[in-house]
Structures
1.
Amino acid sequence: MTAALTESKEASAPPASPPVSRRRRRRSLDEPPRWQIYVPLGVYLLFTLIPFYWMVLFALREPGSDSLVPWPITGEHFAKVWNERGFDTYFINSMYVGIASMLMTLLVALSGGYALARFKFRMRMPFMLALLCSQFIPGALMLVPLFEIFRELQLLNSLWSVILAETVFQLPLSMILISGFIRNVPPSLEEAAWVDGCSRLRAFLAVVLPLLRPGLIAVGSFAFVHSWNHFLFALMFLNSQDKQTIPVGLNSLLGSDSVDLGALAAGGVVAAVPVVIVFAFIQRWLITGFSAGAVKG
Amino acid sequence: MADAVRERTRPRRRRAGRSPRSLPYLLLAPAGLLMLGFIAYPIISVIYYSLQNYNVTKPWRNGFAGLDNFREIFTDDPFFWDTLIFSARWVLVEVSLQLVFGLALALIINQTFVGRGVARALVFSPWAVSGVLTSTIWILLYNPSTGLSRYLADAGIGEYGTSVLANPGTAFWGAVIAELWRGVPFFAILILADLQSVSKDLYEAASVDGASRIRQFFHITLPHLRDAIVLSTLLRAVWEFNNVDLLYTLTNGGPAGSTTTLPLYVAQTGIHGNEFGYAAALTTVAFVILLFCSIVYLRLSKFGGDDK
């Protein structure tokens, strides 16, 4: 793994030997030999991909087969989880929760992030601090009081309890990121629009929002992926079969006495597909998004 | 010109009907209200419950208990100390391994080579996978009769019927590896983001001066990454401490309670034991421990300080 770090060629330059140009380039880039990249990377890729392959293998392989290649392919495990184990309902519920939390998070974080980025006011720093501190709060430990609150609000066993809880726990980071993105847009652009007679809101919608698109896609995707994945809130706040989400469905497959591995793997694939699609779509922005917002605060 | 502008904007401001002074507060109101209602209020109510006997199934015992819950935690709950020690072990092992592998991975992906884009996408992909799905995948892999161990045994490595998760000695490492699979990409992403902001000129200058790549790493790369590393290890440590999904579904704290973290213990006490008051007291203790450790950690690492 750390081969790339431990073995390096001393770039001690003997004075005046081969043509300067070539040596200079080799030294200035100072690149490790290829094998030091490909060997550890290959090992790590195996570690990453074998588990995924294992799941797909079990999901597509005929029951009772033990070959390491899913051939002949069967769709019966998928049919089983989808039709008999309620994954059709879970999938729709999870989508509903994921999309609603994403939209709510984006709206609330945009409005708050704009205030944090563009105004100087007395509560600004305390608010930023509160946002950072809230990152320390364990969702698991909030289960009991949140349960009580949703009982009071009569939201238990409604998807809205999960949507609200997810949104609240997504908000702090999303707001910090979005205010960072807005700060990267020069205020002069907005001011120019005001001069042209736009209201603050219109200037924001017409000038700033289009420039935020990549950042918003990244933040929105985080929110979607997190809500899609979260398990404990759904487990605690939803108790009827028709309201459950995919992670809870997977947990009940795991918990049954004789675990049907094929069905379990197929359920896992159903759970993985949407996030993998979202991920493939946003991974280009992951790195730039983080470097623009979170790391620099 | 300027006058004309002012005349045109002033009435518009008035038409919006708000003085600019209150506008930021209005914009922050939705977020503020949500966080007050669902974060601040619950924290206060946890502290309130922790001073109560509160059990849904035994209403006749409910009422003010003073510090009884806390006394019970520290004096006659042997399980509390076990879960605390396991939590510490879990966080330390997870975070340090994730940091080492994540850093190495980021350094590799930061090089230019053929197939870098594809490799990056593949290597980062487990980041998007949930705890429950991670458990699902690794339960398939660890299965004694149809998992990896069986195929390895076919090839003459190890024994048939090895059950990683059912054995207290190996369950810890089984859980650690599963969590690493999901956690390393997070570190690699954050560190890579920061690596890309290191100026190339520094390396150029260093290598003209004849510094080896190892020296360049220790004298340029690491100091530059320090704040990002401190922040991401702290965030991750808090996150791993609080991470219940994976352990709940992978081992449910077993075998024999050997993989129960404090938050998992809280969840089990609150959900299955209905002892809300006791769970709230445990929560309060966990809070204080987290906060204390975070402050000490930030002090020790001189976060945001000068490099020398």
2.
Amino acid sequence: MASLAPQKSAAADRQDGGSAARSQESGAASAPAAVKLTRKDFLSDQEVRWCPGCGDYSILNAATTAFTHLNIPRERFVVVSGIGCSSRFPYYVNTYGFHTLHGRAPAVATGVAATNPDLLVWVMTGDGDGLAIGGNHLMHAMRRNVNLKIILFDNRIYGLTKGQYSPTSRLGQVNKTAPFGTVEPPVDPVSLALTCGATFVARSAAIYQKHLVDILGRAAAHKGCAFIQVYQNCPVYNDGAFEPFTEKDVRDDQNVEVAHGKPLLFGKNKEKGIRVAGHKPEIVQLGGSVTEKDVLTYDSTDRSLAHLLAHLQPPEFPMPIGVFREVAQPSYESLIHKQISDVTAKRGPGDLAKLLNSGETWEIKG
Amino acid sequence: MAQTPSPEDRLDSPEGGKKRISRQQVREAIIRFAGDSGDGIQLTGSQFTNVTAIAGNDLSTFPDFPAEIRAPAGSVPGVSGYQIQFSSYDIHTPGDKAQVLIAFNPAALKANLNRIAPNATIIVNTDEFTEKNLEKAGYQANPLEDNSLSGLRVVKIPMTSITVKTIEDMASVSHKDRERCRNFFALGVVCWLYGRPLDPIERWIKNKFAKSPDFVEANTRVLKAGFNYAETVELFSVAYEVPPAKLRPGRYKNLTGYQGIVYGMVAATQKADLKLVYCSYPITPATEILQELSSLKNFGVITMQFEDEIASMNAAIGASFAGGLGATGTSGPGLALKSEALGLAVITELPIIVVDVQRAGPSTGMPTKTEQADLLFALFGRPSESPVPIVAVASASDAFDCAVEATRIAIKYMTPVILLTDLYTVFGSEPWRIADVNALPAMDVSPRLRALKAGSNGGFQPYARDEKTLARPWALPGTPGLEHRIGGLEKSNILGHISYDPPNHDLMVKMRAEKVARIAQELPPTEIVGKANPDLLVVSWGSTFGPIRTAVERSVEQGLSIGHLHLRWLNPLPSDLGSILKKHKRILVPENNLGQLSFLIRANYLVETIGYNRVTGQPFSVSELQDEFKKQLSKR
């Protein structure tokens, strides 16, 4: 599986001047002072209490590694979480952190980002937290393009409440609240993020450490709302859920990397590809009359293409991973502050005494 | 402006050749404008209010608008009302029953017959009393012709046709627009009746329609026509004059309650050098606050309209965590949605302002009607022991001070504060002695400095506490060395690590309660207005202040032994309240709810109270309260 190596950002590849240059900066507004930090600097003194073998450890490792690559001082990181196993995250990183309420992290984080755009705000959430109770806030944070880096820890189960089905559980999955199998079709988080207009949408897996570090780094560099779905194994309640496409011996055949400007090739020797016939993707074997030219070249600025691939699933298709969408658009908080400075430039700074004395006034003499 | 007729000149002018009409001096007047919701009633009312304010009267207003945005024209549910009382003395209410009703159509007449005094003057637009409109209003016969209005003085004016005639030469104004000017005609008539100057209204027209000079001319001409018509046609046997009130010297403006809240929050955050971040979801009647603040971008105010009440509250928490002052506003049902996050604000000890503009009813209830029934919800509507300070606005002119005080306390004690107000106070208006910005109280401690001090000896301690206030430090993200984590899980005191330690939880629960209780050290001694050691002590909170204070004042003038105690803080209650209440044998607590303050008083002090509880969606009238006082005093 060669495609799990770090990728260059699509925006940089496009060489379209301003937007690419912007997206190479950090997601936080002003240029960071050069800081050299190690992973250890980002780990708090709190004992990590996830279950042994939990995929969250890998995400913690990947995130703290990605943090060290950003050259941003620690005090400018804010990690906001909801409720669930994943949401214990802030306690384990030595940054500013806020462990909030069930599903509400995107709303709290929006308040943080809007108030102080110099901060680099991460949202740690799970499939239950983010997509069920917090679906509304998640949707609107992405729609507004708030400068948040949202990591969705997806284990397709409720872990902290001990094994009930979640919005990403497979139809028919047997668990504590569906002993005879769920009758609910799952949501695809990447499709949802695309629909809501997140300007950076990606998918990775906790066990793809290098891939994940790279994606988190690119998300951090993106100015705007970045959404990253991360498959993460729950060894207690949904063990092995992702093995059919993440195990070493099947990875190459069961994953396809979506990357800007790259053909959608997969297989051990890149002998297979995805092409589009009509409006439907299909798998083709290279060789004979079928060449690489017949295979779809991915464009991460094309939302329709992203939609076309996002919901593909094994066993019919390889699982698409990588960066589905990366576009430069003004972020919510930057527009808020721009509007404030535009109006201030036009009207002059607010004068409180003048405001209180506005309209018709009259004097009562003593 | 030179063309503006001065009422005094005209009345006294011997060359006028007209019968001199006496201008009778009265202490107060209560006027009600009523018409279809498309008739511009609120505009007419507020313009009359404006000229009345400038004339130096004390005044109080109350708009009474329908639930529907546009109910069928001419129907009773579509009637919009605006009442104003103005006076030559200090008043506190828009008055009980109107002495003058301006009814723009039959429905307006029908809807307001029970809101006018027995000998009131009714000014009607006869053009609207058509068969069709009478039918729409549910009249079998024309009330102007069937003697059903006997006892009332009915002044019939064909307002629409005169208005159209006045500006018929203005070809550029459509017929429909000409008709729509009739509210200015009515306004002109009422201005003459009470000797109000027209200049301020003309200035307003000029400003409002600056882009269309035709409208300026049309409306101005119609306004003057109304004024001149009233005088020329001798519609009224008597005109009135309400001399200016003797208010405390200073510069005044007419202020609505929601403006007071907005100005107060902006002023307080400027004083504290904090960014105001107002997060809200539109809900009647709290929406005005969001709208008003949204227009103040050049004050650096951030306003965000969220997807729901839950997001609004949570975003306000995020804003305060990041170092702004997070604030949110809502109305009853919205407060329910905020309650989970309010608990988060309590346990993370962050300063937040939550404005609750109470409205009538559980669930959706009656969104455009008033009530004060969220007190117990504000106090107790959260899981577990979750104390939140509560300050209640007494009147439109009190809103500014309450908002400043709520902000000051929130910052000083590091706590969310609920600012309780209601539809009656936010939409009502009163003359407000414009606050001197420089004289505002200092916002005690710079929270940032406090945070730095706490961090100076060793590791940062997010739950170290100020000795006097028990407030924890407010360390702002972005500050090197103060990295810390907070959240909804219980934290160990001082260090702020997650803690399930039983004694620690007990300590933290009691600490949060004690912190809120200590706010009482800020409260001034409780005052009783009226008779000292009265036979009947009337206790109130919130917007019932106006009618209760007026009823007490009038009763005392009549020699009754009554005193009035009004509470601004409901949590904590003033520390001297218990001993004061215990000294009084009979305590009457009138409330627009079923006895919520009574419940608190009984629970806190084990003293008996008598409730006067009425929940109609309308404020109390002064006369009903006076009757109740008499009734209570006669029970001996």
